[in-house]
Write a structure and sequence with these properties.
By secondary structure, this protein is α+β, with helices and mostly antiparallel strands. The chain is built from 3 helices and 10 strands; from the N terminus they run βαββββαβββββα. The protein has 2 domains: 47 residues, Roll (2,3-Dihydroxybiphenyl 1,2-Dioxygenase, domain 1); 91 residues, Roll (2,3-Dihydroxybiphenyl 1,2-Dioxygenase, domain 1), CATH 3.10.180.
């Protein structure tokens, strides 16, 4: 079995151990004074965090569910753990139509949980037009604009607002 590996640099190890233990519904397999690691089977991930980095990074992470039932189970687990969700419902982003929601961890890194429903011929659309809600970019994680403004410019791509574009997201 192959595992996806992620390593994050965090500013508060204890707060992040608490958050990720709730998100993954299990305790770390290993904890050191500056490090913690979860060896998850579902999804297969070797996920590590440490305080050894100079700056925190990463735009966002995601877990793609194979079915609506799997997405509902992820959402139920997040709700049971009292994690704050930003539910976008059905959205169009990155040439796909998906059902998705976001969770943001203690240092502002966004996690996208989604189930792909089909493909679309455009990069993305604004969320909220059909419901009468204010339009928000469907393919940007929560607070993405604030993070981009405070960090060095990021390359154009999915989920990175482009101030030179007429599109609200790209």
């Amino acid at each position: 079995m192959k595992r996806f590996h992620v390593h994050l640099h965090v500013d508060d190890l204890s707060a992040n151990i608490g958050f990720y233990s709730r998100l993954f519904a299990c305790e770390p397999a290993r904890v050191e004074s500056d490090y913690a690691k979860w060896m998850l089977d579902d999804p297969p991930v070797n996920f590590a965090i440490s305080t050894r980095g100079n700056t925190q990074g990463v735009d966002h992470f995601g877990i793609q569910a194979d079915s609506a039932d799997e997405l509902a189970a992820l959402k139920s687990r997040a709700n049971a753990a009292a994690l704050s969700l930003q539910d976008q419902g059905e959205t169009a982003c990155c040439y796909a139509r998906s059902e998705k929601y976001w969770i943001t961890d203690p240092q502002g890194l966004a996690w996208e949980h989604f189930h792909t429903l089909g493909t679309i011929p455009v990069f993305g659309e604004s969320h909220g037009t059909a419901t009468g809600q204010p339009q928000t970019p469907a393919c940007c994680p929560p607070a993405a604009t604030a993070r981009v403004k405070t960090q060095a410019p990021a390359p154009a791509g999915c989920c990175v607002p482009n101030p030179n574009s007429a599109s609200p997201c790209c």
